[in-house]
Amino acid sequence: MGYNILAYNSNGFKNNSEGNWIIPLSSTGTGVGVSTLKLTVAETTTMHITGNGKFYTDAAGTLGESTIATITSGSTRTFYLKLTTGNCNIIIYRGNSCVTRWDEWTSSTNAASINLMNLSSLPAVMTYFVCYGNNTIIGNLSSLPAVMTYFVCYGNNTVTGNISSLPSVMTVFACGGNNTV
To answer: What digits encode the pLDDT tens for the residues 56-104?
Structure first.
């Protein structure tokens, strides 16, 4: 299983022919904090973290260190990660066709933050998105997947567009913190 990344740019990323989904991250502060990512997938897949990023099996970020994790289908799966310095990417194999829910991203002090993730890059099958923390999420509301029913984004992000641009199936929309909407 290769990752075959074709392109990455500062405005988000371009997806490749295998449909991998790439989540760009940056370290903050001392890098000792732990970020939590909760995902739901329609089919079991794997994800890889690049650079200095590491996945852990515990919320303290001390056990089960790895650069590869399996996302098993069936229910929400929780992953813990650290990024001590620099930037990295989480690459979810076939993520554009199987990640149905981004159930939560929580980033504490000195933990990894999402770095320039564009709303237009969210998988077309994603129905649910929840993000907390100091992240850089950008893009227009009209770029959200047509099947998105739930969108919650708290922190420091730049989200543009009109509420009238939300998908017609949207039932919950909330932005709080230092967001620009």
So the answer is: 999 999 999 999 999 999 999 999 999 999 999 999 999 999 999 999 9
With contact defined as beta carbons under 8 Å apart, do 31 and 75 qualify?
no
pLDDT at 12 over 60: no
CA pair distance 28, 85, nearest whole angstrom: 8
**Which of 7, 54, 60 has its CA nearest to residue 33?**
60
pLDDT of 134 over the 90 cut: no
pLDDT for residue 180: 67
Burial 6-20 (b: 16+ CB within 10 A, else e): eeeeeebbebbebeb
CA–CA distance, 53 with 25 (Å, rounded to integer): 9
Entry pTM: 0.86
